[in-house]
Q: What sequence folds into this?
């Protein structure tokens, strides 16, 4: 059977796509590992907290972390617990980075199935799946510090595919997986209800997304987050109408363009995608602050829109009058999309190379001297590298909620006494002053710590024997 035709039989194009997905997974897990080893996390506190929560779950403490404060995470992230078995077999982050990349790559399969269903051709499916894998916006998600919200992109794509195929159980499973990644995806899941109503689906298709979305919001805001973190939920619920007109602020939407670029325009190619995107279009005037990662699920909506939009374009008279062979039309569309991805002036391309600096090598030399089970306080940029332990703190951190901690009550301290490598005055309580005080008192033998080793500008302190 022709590989470009839709039908039964051995799907050689699907095998090609699976090969591309595996290649993508290995490539981006290697890039992610390079980024990790060069201490280049954009938000090292978040990456360390997420990784520590997974490690603690593997060792009997459900999603506990001590980086941001002592307690559970202040978002609804139960999906992270499913990664815990990785750390039953060793203390290396690469398997986790690979699994993240593989899950993101799996979205190409959902795009393939959706495009094949809507456009009637496996060749169209292969093209759209390949475009998904090479899209720089997806790469930006992949290199974003283990944030669970990035995993909603493939889950939403699979949800839409099963919704289009009228397979309620498949839709419900992937909608539930998306909701377990973050409560912030709940408004998007809820939008499947009006979409089903417009399509005149039976009540099950309306009630299922409503129940999943509303239950996720209620449970996460009023039950899970207060119980896990010990503090009231402060994200979605506290946004105030028109508190800041972010809807009309270029500075806010520039953050969205950074990973979507002009691909934001094709979001309006189909009314299905537009309905799903309504929570994001409405979020500007509701938000006290726009966080770029809130908009990561738009990557999924983009490829939903492209698939539905291309199906409608195929029905246009100018398209039909071209009378070009299907293969030529597919190649031309692919070339246009790739040129769009390559030359979009607004789309930020991620870095793909993360070489280690001499300072990075020096820091790793000291990290390797710290026993695996020891409690540690460290510079913010080193937090992810030391997150596979029960207790980890950021040096001189000012807590914003949760139980107050004494960041000096640890076995080891690894810092640069000159000051933090990542400035964040909101979190730090005079990092430079406290680090120099610790250094001077240790040199004069007036501290509870002794200097164990020095590499370049990094200093490793070890607690003296307790009396």
A:
């Amino acid at each position: 059977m022709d590989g470009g035709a839709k039908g039964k039989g051995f799907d050689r194009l699907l095998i090609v796509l699976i090969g591309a997905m595996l290649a993508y997974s290995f490539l981006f897990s290697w890039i992610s590992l390079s980024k990790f080893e060069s201490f280049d996390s954009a938000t090292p506190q978040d990456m360390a907290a997420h990784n520590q929560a997974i490690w603690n779950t593997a060792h009997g403490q459900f999603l506990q972390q001590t980086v941001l404060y002592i307690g559970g995470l202040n978002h609804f992230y139960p999906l992270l617990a499913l990664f815990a078995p990785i750390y039953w077999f060793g203390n290396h982050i690469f398997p986790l980075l690979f699994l993240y990349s593989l899950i993101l790559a799996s979205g190409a399969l959902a795009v393939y199935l959706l495009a094949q269903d809507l456009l009637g051709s496996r060749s169209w499916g292969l093209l759209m799946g390949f475009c998904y894998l090479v899209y720089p916006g997806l790469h930006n998600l992949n290199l974003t510090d283990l944030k669970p919200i990035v995993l909603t992109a493939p889950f939403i794509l699979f949800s839409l595919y099963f919704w289009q195929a009228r397979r309620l159980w498949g839709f419900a499973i992937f909608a539930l997986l998306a909701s377990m990644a973050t409560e912030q995806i709940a408004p998007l899941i809820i939008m499947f209800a009006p979409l089903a109503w417009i399509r005149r689906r039976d009540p099950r298709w309306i009630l299922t997304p409503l129940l999943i979305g509303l239950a996720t919001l209620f449970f996460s805001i009023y039950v899970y987050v207060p119980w896990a973190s010990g503090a009231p939920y402060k994200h979605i619920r506290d946004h105030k109408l028109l508190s800041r007109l972010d809807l009309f602020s270029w500075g806010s939407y520039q953050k969205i363009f950074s990973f979507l670029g002009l691909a934001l325009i094709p979001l309006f190619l189909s009314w299905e995608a537009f309905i799903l995107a309504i929570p994001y279009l409405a979020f500007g005037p509701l938000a006290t602050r726009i966080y770029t990662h809130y908009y990561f699920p738009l990557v999924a909506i983009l490829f939903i829109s492209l698939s539905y939009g291309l199906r409608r374009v195929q029905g246009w008279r100018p398209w039909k009058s071209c009378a070009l062979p299907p293969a030529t039309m597919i190649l031309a569309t692919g070339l246009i999309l790739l040129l769009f991805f390559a030359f979009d002036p607004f789309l930020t391309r991620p870095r793909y190379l993360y070489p280690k600096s001499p300072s990075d090598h020096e820091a790793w030399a000291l990290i390797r001297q710290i026993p695996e089970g020891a409690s540690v306080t460290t510079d913010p940029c080193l937090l992810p590298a030391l997150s596979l332990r029960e207790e980890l703190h950021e040096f001189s951190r000012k807590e914003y909620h949760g139980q107050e901690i004494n960041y000096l009550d640890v076995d080891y301290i690894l810092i640069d006494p000159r000051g933090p490598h990542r400035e964040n005055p909101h979190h730090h309580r005079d990092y430079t002053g406290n680090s120099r005080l610790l250094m001077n008192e240790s040199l004069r033998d007036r501290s509870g710590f002794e200097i164990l080793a020095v590499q370049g500008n990094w200093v490793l302190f070890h607690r003296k024997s307790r009396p």
